Amino acid sequence: MKKFTNKEISWLSFNDRVLQEAANPDVPLMERVKFLGIFSSNLDEFFRVRVATLNRLAKLGKPAKKLIGHDPKTVLKQIQKIEVKRHETLNTVYQQILGGLAKENIHIVDETGLSRGQEEFVRSYFAEKVRPQLMPVMIDQAHKFPGLQDRSIYLAVHLSVTDQPDKKKYALIEIPTDVLPRFIILPSFRNRNCIILLDDVIRFGLAEIFSVFHFDHIAAYTIKLTRDAELDIEYDLSESYLKKISSSLKKREGGVPVRFIYDAQIPEDLLSLIKEKLHLGPDDTLVPGGRYHNFKDFMGFPDVGLEHLKYEPIAFLAHRDMDAERSIFRAMGKKDILLHYPYQSFQYALDLLRDASIDPRVRSIKITLYRVAKNSSVVSALINAVRNGKKVTVNMELQARFDEEANIYWANKLEEEGARVSFGVPGLKVHCKLCLITREEKNGPVRYGIIGTGNFNEDTARIYSDHHLFTTDKRLTREIDKVFDFFANNYNVPKFKHFVVSPFDTRKMLMKNIRNEIKNKLDGKDAYIIIKMNNLADAAIIRKLYEASEAGVPILLFIRSMFSLIPGIDGLSSNIRAFSIVDKFLEHSRILVFCSGGEDKMYITSADLMPRNLDRRVEVTCPIYDPDLKQELRTFLRLQLEDNVKTRILDKDLANSYVPSDADKSSRAQWSIYDYLKRFSAP
Fold first, then answer.
1. Sequential DSSP letters for 202-264
2. How many CB atoms are located within 10 Å of the residue 166 CB?
3. What is the pLDDT of residue 400?
4. Contacts of 464 (CB under 8 A, 6+ apart)
5. At CA 322, angle to CA 317 and CA 328, rounded to 5?
6. Pairing mode, strands 464-471 and 586-587
7. CATH class of the domain defined by 501-680
8. What is the per-residue pLDDT for 251?
9. Domains 320-498 and 501-680 share a fold
10. For residue 452, what pLDDT is reported?
11. Hey, which CATH number is domain 22-309, 3.30.70.240, 3.30.450.180, 3.30.1840.10, 3.40.30.10?
12. Residue tagged active-site, from 158, 319, 340, 431
């Protein structure tokens, strides 16, 4: 009996749920366009990271199978089959969306469908904007085949003469989407609003580009190469950590190919030449696709006046406890406050940091930064605090994947201003979300803390569903301070009384709580487990959940993406129900609930249930003590469970079936949560 779903295959099933949103006619049209882009962007990262890792493991042979519990080569073959089929689905969904846009009088046209006036526009745009950015490489003349850049798309150009089949040339042109928009709005024609892709503007100008040659047939086919993006960090003690990361980032640009996508209409001779030059063989992931690649660019589809075809933007809810006092310090001093993003505003966190930066009683600010916004107001507040004489300590994680360069930039900026910047713990990624402000008050120093499931990032806080606990509870703020002490003195691991910290205690805590639920159930007491996570893929934890299920413990799981547990199997997991919600906001919060004989232990955490989070990262799991906040989280989870619009059932078949809808009472969790939180708004 199969007991586990491979985590990479389960992730592909999650991305299918994203594609379902793009295909769903009940989703507003422009939101479907966005989901198409998210699906593509997700898939790119999956190949750059997950498939790249499997490729590396496959080279180890038998030891790899023993290490990860399955044969990486077998999984890679499964992924290739799924990828080819999903690309067919992607192109079908794209055509459906094109049809929907056409009904709204928005037409995406190619170089063959232009009116005379549009041709003049494209000719001028090509000459002025596009041509100066193009540097064609003649493949047959080049001494070295050009290194195709990851994330870029190229036109592979086939030049030939109709009556001389042996007379051919080949070229490559990078489509300059880094400096020019992918979508160009054309002058309207017969009241038709038209858009052309940059790819087709280049196709329009092919004859001009290659006018030096005498070919009567020139055609271009889009290709894309995805490369291994995992960093190789050599542990040379003579070189600083920051320099190691910077050096490794440069190597990433030339990473090993992990996927090659090409226009299925490309001539065989041109395809064979490119495969030969890239050293691609039968074991590589080669995907025949459509005319266009990099659908991630559709996340930046131009504003064409279709606001009525988007989700209505939400107004951030004010929190009455925060707004009841002029000072957030005063509000926090009265009671613990739990903020739920994106329903409530991240502005409170920014206001707290800004107030701390100028408050003469504030002595120090400590914070962990994993991913920050592009123009980070968080970092700006920290810099202002340094300038105002505060002692600012920042733990900056340089290995936050694909944010490494930005984090290096911000680390240098903070250090230049005089902040103390550390880079975590050797061998461990710092993934916890903590902030601690120390303020001198009448009776001595008071610590103000923020403990979160999501980053201190005002951009992602608009679209990620997360929680931040604002607290002055000494039990918790002392623990935050201990974590920062550990960053400063890695050799001294503190003893935590309230926090559960990876890689030291999280696994043990989880096992202990699951065992306790089993014991209580067998003793005839109430028992249950509720887990909300992004990923659940740790084999030991899954086995323990199976054991609890067979002891009769009801287990409810809300898992966004990777999910290796198989629910609903007699004799294994019959008491486990699992669901996944994909909707307007990204479900990102992490919550643990254990009945504990009626005590109802409840935690928020930065950790997913994966080996890396439990064993190789610094993560913080924080207990929720306040009864009112416990009730908020219970209601949050109940509303998730009641969703019968955007919830999919997670099962052994990875079918992604929707929870049966109720014609009399539809319930959509994210909408219901917003309505629920209105009662906490300022009057």
1. HHHTHHHHTTTS--SEEEEEEEEEEE---------TTS-HHHHHHHHHHHHTTPPEEEEEEET
2. 6
3. 67
4. 341, 342, 454, 585, 586, 588
5. 135
6. parallel
7. alpha beta
8. 55
9. yes
10. 97
11. 3.30.1840.10
12. 431
- What token pair was written down for 500? 């559960």
List C-alpha distances in Å: 515 to 446, 521, 592, 598. Answer: 38, 10, 15, 15
Cite the beta strand spans of 536-676 per DSSP E: 555-559, 576-581, 586-587, 591-594, 601-605, 617-623, 647-649
User: Looking at residue 234, what is its pLDDT?
Assistant: 47
The yes or no reply on domain 320-498 and CATH 3.40.190.10 is no
Tokens of 259: 């996927």
Q: What is the pLDDT of residue 233?
A: 47
Q: Where are the domains of the chain?
A: 22-309, 320-498, 501-680
pLDDT at 364: 98
Positions in the chain whose pLDDT score sits under 70: 141-143, 231-254, 400, 402, 682-683
For 87, the token pair is: 């690309």
Q: Look-up: residue for tokens 């899954």?
A: 542
pTM score of the predicted model: 0.93
CA gap 102, 96 in Å, rounded: 10
Environment class of residue 208 by beta-carbon count within 10 Å: exposed (0-12), middle (13-18) or buried (19+)? exposed
DSSP string computed for 388-410: TT-EEEEEE-TTSTT-HHHHHHH
Q: Could you tell me how many residues make up the chain?
A: 683
Is the separation of the CB atoms in 12 and 84 below 8 Å?
no
C-alpha 565/C-alpha 543 separation (Å) is 9
d(CA 193, CA 328): 49
The confidence score (pLDDT) of residue 681 equals: 81
pLDDT at 683: 61
CB 385 within 8 Å of CB 392: yes
Q: What is the pLDDT of residue 236?
A: 44
Amino acid at 162: T
Is-catalytic flag, 70?
Answer: no
pLDDT in the model for residue 95: 96
Percent of the chain that is helix, strand, coil (3-state, to 5):
40, 25, 35
